[in-house]
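User: Teach me something about this protein's shape.
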Amino acid sequence: MIAIVDYNMGNLASVRNAFDVLGEKVVIESDPEKLAQYDRIILPGVGAFGDAMEHLKTNGMDEAVTQYAQSGKYVLGICLGMQLLFDSSEEFGITSGLGLIPGRVVAFDSSRFHTPLKVPHMGWNRMLTHGHTLFEGLDDGHYLYFVHSYHALCTHEEHSIGECIYGYKFTSAVARDNVMGIQPHPEKSHDNGLRILKNFITL
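Assistant: First, the predicted structure itself:
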């Protein structure tokens, strides 16, 4: 059984619909005490990092997700959900994250752009991956759908399993043992996104 973590900060219906297409039953779960009963969890997220952490802390879901990850079961963070896996974010001041992947989340640095680009980074872009099982069956460079103004900086390079270029190269997918995250939205990325979700199901 797979649970989509409900903390009032994600496009839960779209994520669930993607799993419906794959024929996989998922449960939208808002009770942190029930999280441990699932085989895998999805941590979605849309919005601001600080607000998301406040919502997670409201009923102890932050501790429940952390304990779940520490149990060795698979976790997949999507978009803001991926960013929450890190130690901290610089969005609207410094906010502590879940601390499951060493690193921090920073704003796009437009001073590094060689040509004028709009932020947020929005739309289809090519992601370069490094042979992780999460991307099995996809080309090394495949297109996925992005919407974000901040990106992750991994403390340890080996935790970066995918990069994208928008003005400069940035980490767009991460993994540390059983904890994984992707910056793009697989539920909006058609066949490529569905393949990533299917790979997560079969890990």
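Now, about its shape. The chain is about 25% helix and 35% strand. The chain has one domain: 2-201. If you'd like, I can walk through any region in more detail.
User: That's plenty for now, thanks!
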